[in-house]
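Morning. Coffee machine broken again, so started the prediction first thing and wrote up yesterday's gels while waiting. Chain of 264 residues, entered below exactly as on the submission form.
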Amino acid sequence: MLLAVDVGNTNVVFALFETALGEIPRIRTRWRIATDPRRTGDEYAVWLVQLMAIEGLARDAVTQVIISTVVPRALHNLQVLSSKYFGVEALVAGQGRAEWGIPIDVDEPGSLGADRAVNAIAAHAKYPGDLIVVDFGTATTFDVVDFSGAYKGGIIAPGINLSLDALVSNTAKLPRIAIESPRTNSVIGRNTQDQMLIGVFWGYVAMMEGLIAKLRLEIGRPAKVIATGGLALLFGQHTEIFDVVDTDLTLEGLALLAERAGTR
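Came back before lunch.
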């Protein structure tokens, strides 16, 4: 089985893929833990091996490991996890045998986040034509992938939770609220909490719709919009701007990279 590890600024996601010759890899199970670059390989193992045992899986079920990270300090300890506890030298997305394999057509290709490159790979493999990939994470990113699979650039915006944290942290009386579906379609809030939710939620929807409209205009050809990340399902219920909500895009991109690396 393939163990794919996606390290974001907020969480690390571990996913086990079942692979069979000639078939698309399928996620069997996944787990999530808060990102902490200080967490050692031994600490990861104590947590992960127990979770695998609950699923009836032994350590030797893992035959391949691939890691994608936007937190460089977390990489070494995950490599230790892979070598010490699974006996596998981990592939690192974007490096060596797991290099991207797609054109990165931007001014500074080396600065592109691993998650965005992996999303581009998976999106092009799954959906034809020009694409706009919107990923809801700590930051919300908008990435343009052309019909040939080349990454052409995009936009970085503060994630909605980051925006809300900044609002609450820098005001004396505003309460902390959770991001959820507004209770009404009205944008005239009758209390402080509703006014805050309207501002961050519908403000975010308006921002996304406006930026995607501008991206489509600049691309100049029909472009399919793919949403992924933790809040994609929530926002997908309140806007028609997304053509597809695909919450497993990043993990599937890692599986594709691992598959390609195994055939080189």
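The helical segments are 41-54, 75-86, 114-126, 160-169, 192-219, 232-236, 249-262. Going to sketch it on the whiteboard this afternoon.
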